[in-house]
Specification:
18% strand, 38% helix, 2 domains, Rossmann fold, alpha/beta
Amino acid sequence: MKIVIITDAWKPQVNGVVNSLSKIAEGLTQKGHNVEIIGPNQFKTIACPTYPSIRLALFSKKKLKKLLFKIKPESIHIATEGPLGLAGRKICIQNKWRFTTSYHTRFPEYIKARIPIPLWLTYKFLKNFHSAAHKTLVPTISIKKMLESRGFKNIDIWSRGVDQNIFKPVKKKEESSYTKPVMVYVGRVSVEKNIEDFLKININGSKIIIGDGPDLRKLKHKYKNVIFLGEKFGKELANIVASSDVFVFPSLTDTFGIVLIEALACGIPVAAYPVSGPIDIIENGVNGSLNRDLETAIKDALKISKEECIKKAKQYTWQSSTNQFESSLTPIKIL
């Protein structure tokens, strides 16, 4: 099948959406499909306000339409609700093509963290955007229930995976210069990730932040006792995570959190708030700790067995994720 995925989030961006789509495109190709990714890199772009590393496609509809008619896809998936997603949605509707969408980000909460826009307004926009889709894919049951409570329809689960050839326990932890326990966060360094809830905790040990983002400079200046390592990838990232004692996930707005299952695959327990994403992955007291007091969650997570963490991570494979995505696809035309 010739499949087109339209996304506003694509390389060189570094985030969960890009990671997920890259893995799915790879998996679908291995299964014999022809996959084309249409991203902002194929259009004129401007920097996203308050987040300059993200580029937004400008006036994309005309070129996008030409690309789609040239490719002649048999199935279309629209992954994001940005300028490209909006243009793709409009083209599909005008041509009476069926398509699927996915919900990766709690966009209303992200916007509200930066601009005082009411949640009901952005959820209304999102509900309208996804209402035209044959199916909308979400990563967890809790997100499915939340969106259905807001009137969203035709929602299917599309979970995620972890590469356990990269993310795995270290055979023997090397002696570290960091004071134990070592607490690590991996992800975007930005306001919507709620990192300061972790950084401001007065707790013994070493706090390590891995990632980049618009708040990096400010937080480095404010928290002198925190170790900021910048972006890390692949085996280097996995080794740092696997050498830590607890993975801290302070976000209140993620829909899944691939970094959670990557940490579990390394045998590292997770400390998080009991919110969407963590509540779907973490079994409290088994492979991590969920608590409205993050400091308590960290202390409790340090007591968790790494074997249970690894066991849980084995439930998440990219092959299974690819199969879920493939089964959700719909032909653009009904024969």
